[in-house]
């Protein structure tokens, strides 16, 4: 059995953060498929009792530990491996600041926006989509501006803040209806930089469940 198990599915950018980190640190890990769209496993009482009371993927299993919330998982893996770890208190707090901004406002809006556009049946209300798109444009501009300052979010080296923020940004542009990299040049070069790190794999090739069967 692999050292780490990750409850995940290919379409989940939230899970991609954890899967990518595991790959980037060269961990011995195996995915556990969450049938999110089919059986809605995450909503079952069994999943909530035995895997994650919050009813969400990702969940990382490491021995007796079960961790959810990708920011917590990234922190745990960085501390254990010593890789992608922000250095010192200022960097640690800065990474946490960007991870929270990401969870709430960057991928926190991109995830539901993409879900309502292409996965929800019926698709999302256009008024809701328009609201989310406005919030996304604003958050991506903030990220792009920050990335004009340095190659990675916190200086010259990639940290867990970068691994978090890329969560949904490698999924195909047609899933969003706009091309994030084409519209934000600093985000585009940063995504290329991260793509060159040893162990980088596209989310659809890293986690089970693609293409989606419905
Ligand atoms: N902040 C959480 C978000 C996790 C999350 O929302 N995961 C989605 C899958 S992409 C989920 O399981 N949603 C279930 C639901 O909201 O019912 C994280 O970063 O891990």
Give a structural overview.
By secondary structure, the chain is α+β, with helices and mostly antiparallel strands. Helices cover 53% and strands 8% of the residues. It has helices spanning 13-24, 45-50, 70-81, 88-119, 126-147, 160-165, 173-176, 180-183, 185-195, 203-206, and strands spanning 4-8, 29-33, 59-62, 65-68. The protein has a four-stranded mixed β-sheet with strand order 2-1-3-4, covered by helices on one side. α1 (13-24) packs parallel to α3, α4 packs antiparallel against α5 and α5 packs across α9 (185-195). The model has no long low-confidence stretch (mean pLDDT 98). It binds glutathione. Glutathione binds at residues 12, 14, 42, 55-58, 69-70, 103, 111.
Record keyword descriptors for this entry.
214 residues; four-stranded mixed β-sheet; binds glutathione; single chain; alpha+beta
Shape category: globular
What is the arithmetic mean of pLDDT? 98
Number of distinct beta strands: 4
Total helices: the number is 10
Helical content band: 40-55%
Helix and strand succession?
EHEHEEHHHHHHHH
How would a crystallographer describe the biggest sheet? 4 strands, mixed
Write out the strand line-up for the largest beta sheet, numbering strands in chain order.
Answer: 2-1-3-4
Helix and strand composition category: alpha+beta
Offer a quick outline of the entry.
With 214 residues, the protein is α+β, with helices and mostly antiparallel strands.
What is the secondary structure topology, with strand pairs?
Blueprint (H helix, E strand, L loop, with lengths): L3 E5 L4 H12 L4 E5 L11 H6 L8 E4 L2 E4 L1 H12 L6 H32 L6 H22 L12 H6 L7 H4 L3 H4 L1 H11 L7 H4 L8
Parallel strand pairs: 1-2
Antiparallel strand pairs: 1-3, 3-4
Helix pairs in contact: 1-3, 4-5, 5-9
């Amino acid at each position: 059995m692999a050292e780490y198990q990750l409850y995940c599915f290919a379409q989940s950018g939230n899970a991609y953060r954890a899967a990518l980190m595991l790959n980037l640190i060269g961990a011995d890990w195996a995915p556990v498929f969450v049938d999110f769209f089919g059986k809605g496993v995450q909503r079952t009482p069994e999943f909530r009792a035995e895997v994650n009371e919050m009813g969400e993927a990702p969940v990382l299993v490491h021995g007796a530990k079960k961790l959810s919330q990708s920011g917590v998982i990234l922190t745990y893996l960085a501390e254990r491996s010593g890789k992608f770890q922000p250095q010192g208190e200022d960097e640690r707090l800065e990474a946490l600041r960007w991870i929270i901004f990401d969870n709430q406002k960057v991928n926190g809006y991109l995830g539901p926006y993409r879900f309502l556009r292409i996965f929800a049946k019926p698709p999302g209300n256009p008024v809701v989509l328009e609201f989310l798109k406005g919030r996304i444009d604003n958050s991506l501009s903030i990220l792009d501006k920050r990335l004009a300052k340095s190659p990675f979010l916190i200086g010259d080296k990639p940290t867990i803040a970068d691994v978090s923020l890329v969560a949904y940004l490698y999924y195909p542009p047609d899933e969003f209806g706009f091309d994030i990299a084409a519209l934000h040049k600093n985000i585009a070069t940063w995504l290329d930089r991260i793509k060159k790190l040893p162990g980088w794999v596209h989310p659809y090739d890293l986690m089970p469940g693609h293409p989606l069967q419905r």
